[in-house]
Amino acid sequence: MATMIEDASATASVPQGFPRGVKLLHDPQRNKGTAFSDAEREILGLRGLLPPRVLPQELQSDRAIRNLRSKANDLERYLFLASLQDRNEMLYYRVLLDHLEELMPIIYTPTVGLACQEFGHIFRRPRGLWISAYDRGHIEEVLHNWPHDDVKIVVVTDGERILGLGDLGADGMGIPIGKLALYSACAGIHPRNTLPITLDVGTDNEELLNDPLYLGIPRRRLRGDAYDEFLDEFVEAVKKVFPHAVLQLEDFATRNAFNLLEKYRGHTCSFDDDIQGTATVALAGVYSALRMTGDELGDKPYLFLGAGEAGIGIGDLIVAALVHEGWSEEEARKRCWFFDSKGLVVKSRTDLAEHKKPYAHDADFSDDFLDAVRELEPGTIIGVSGQPQTFTREVLEAMADINERPIVFALSNPTSKSECTAEQAYGWTRGHAIFASGSPFDPVEFEGQRMVPGQGNNAYVFPGVGLGLIVSAASECTDEMFFVAARTLAGMVHEDDLSQGRIYPALTRIREISANIAEAVAAVAFERGLARVDRPDDLGSAVRDAMFTPEYPVYG
Description:
Elements: E1 3-6, E2 11-14, H1 21-25, H2 38-43, H3 57-69, H4 74-87, H5 89-98, H6 100-107, H7 111-117, H8 119-122, E3 129-132, H9 139-144, E4 153-157, H10 174-187, E5 194-200, H11 206-209, H12 224-241, E6 246-249, H13 254-264, E7 270-272, H14 273-293, E8 302-305, H15 309-324, H16 329-333, E9 336-339, H17 369-376, E10 380-383, H18 393-402, E11 407-410, H19 422-427, E12 434-437, E13 444-446, E14 449-451, E15 454-455, H20 462-472, H21 479-491, H22 495-499, H23 510-527, H24 539-545, E16 554-555
Helix pairs in contact: 3-5, 4-5, 5-10, 10-20, 14-15, 14-21, 17-18, 20-23, 21-23, 23-24
């Protein structure tokens, strides 16, 4: 006879093969630990296998956070949470939701970067799929090994550009695992609908190649046609095995990221978070900052330090926003200037990659960022260089001389790569900077005023975008969707936030934020004929109904 499971969203019968006893306690998706009731323990063969006292989920969550806070360092806290996820998924997500601001830097940037660097040495239990170069010709078979066929979101990396840390090969798996945990915590996408994948195409990291504990194949990276064919096979296999899944590209090297995005975006519902997600959260921050300066979006130039996928992605979205306001594309591009590792991106240079050429303007070349600031007089500088301490005191003082309220975005991750700290940004601009960073910084006290730095965290954006794509079963993810996501996020910043210098809403509102972004994205899909399902009568309700909450089911 089937046992019934009841939860807040559905009631479903469980087949006779439903696990019992120790097997159930080892099933992280069904395990409730000490929260199993006396009746459930009797029915499911658990009596005696657990301590006798029944503890509800809220007490389990309290115990878990106490244990986590007792750990010696953030890597130990990361491992504690990974272990909790491996044995009790609902409790893991309950703890995340109860303490999201505290734990997001643990499960994602900056701690996830350290976890990836140490991945082969701290590895305990596999999660997700590794698809290696040795699987060419058999990728579809590998995907069929995944135990769930209702995958709705895939996050995939090849590990070549992990945060600002470079090529970590197969050890980059911590990134898709962390991103998908945020999809579930922030946007309520059920964990069984998510799939983290690492494409192990080798590594050019000598340290990893010489490390006997490295988990990937010890060979140089695939390049050229072999790499392209491998990616083609992978994308086609995902479309076949999981036909309605959203594919998020993550931490690919710049030389591949732009090509892959353009190649697949019209072919499958896919996006690159490093390019489009970063751009969206940055544009939302600019919108909020302009409410504080009183300027319009195109009033002053933007100067980027770094011209990789993040920087060009931000520039492209600013251009799209200006075009939406009535600017020509040519004039809009002239508001965005880039400074790369060689210097200012100008037309006279002959060494520019294709993705930089649309932003090569007529101007004298300079290899000094401070000179570029003084010459261009930008209202905003945006650091996406991965080079720490490059927003020097002289640069920030110059920005404060040019602008009453200079906008300073030091977006490189992790914290060790940030172009400047919050304390430096405020101190060197006499407290006038509007500051945001990629990794979190604590509030700063400056001359009796408490300044709360904004964190331009992609978690504000990608979970809601993904949820909107899933609810609408969109066939494509368009630039317009990211533009409306940026406007939606900026619209949720309260005057109270701005008065503290904070240009993003509090992370405690993340589910509300994700739901609103999802509704806006899904609306675009329906309006542009990209949805593969009928539009619900109440789109907002449909979005919120699709979001799971980490509550235990009742067995019996």
